[in-house]
Structures are given as C-alpha cells and as structure tokens.
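Handout, page 2. Input:
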Amino acid sequence: MFERLGGQELKKLLDLGVVSKISCWQIDRCGRDLRDIINFLHYTTERKVPVHFISQGLVTLNENGEENPIAKMMISILGVVAEMERKLILERQKEGIELAKLKGNVFLGRKPNTKEGPLRFLSKPKKQWNY
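Output:
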C-alpha cells in the first residue's frame, strides 16, 4: 500500500502521529493481496491507529487499543477472498483479450504516456465488440 503516492503520504502522516484513525470502505483497498493487507494492518497496529472497514463493519483495535481478535480473523478470511476475486478478474480479462485477438480484434490497451484526463476518456464513444 505504501508504494503508491497516496500510500506514501499516509505513511508520513502515520509516522508523524497526525492520524488517529483510518476509515476504509473495504478490506481490499488496503493491498493487492493478503500479505499487503496484513503488513498494512501490522504497521497501523504498531502505531495504535485503528482501521475501520466501513462496508464490513470491522475495527482492528478495541477502545482500549488492543487488537480485536474477531476482526483480525474476519479480515484474514475476507483478505483471502479479495485476493482470489482479483485473480479471477485478471484471468477473465486475459481470456477476453485472447478471444478478441482470435476474432481478429486488435487489443492495444491504453497508449503509453497518454495525457488524456478521466473526463475526456470516459466521454469518448465506446467500441462495440462482437463476441
């Protein structure tokens, strides 16, 4: 999580002691795989900063600053599920690209170093694939 720009900024704030609580929509927003998630949570727990996962209703630390064992168990389980889901998405994406190539459609992806903003990208006409 700390490799990205926002993660680096969060790490600085955690190290400075500025952040007292982190709210996150879902567990999978804390890392790409279970190891990343656990490393992030270990880092915040060491600094006594509770992480609240809004959609799951879990908080990593109790009111007295101790690790919540039920939340730890649920986070581990849901982290594995999120990791498996991500792998499935990538596999399906790869299969879709291969199918498109077999049908003669060229898959190029996004051009490198594009300066196109999100609004312009989203307002472009969509290509219709015939599968």
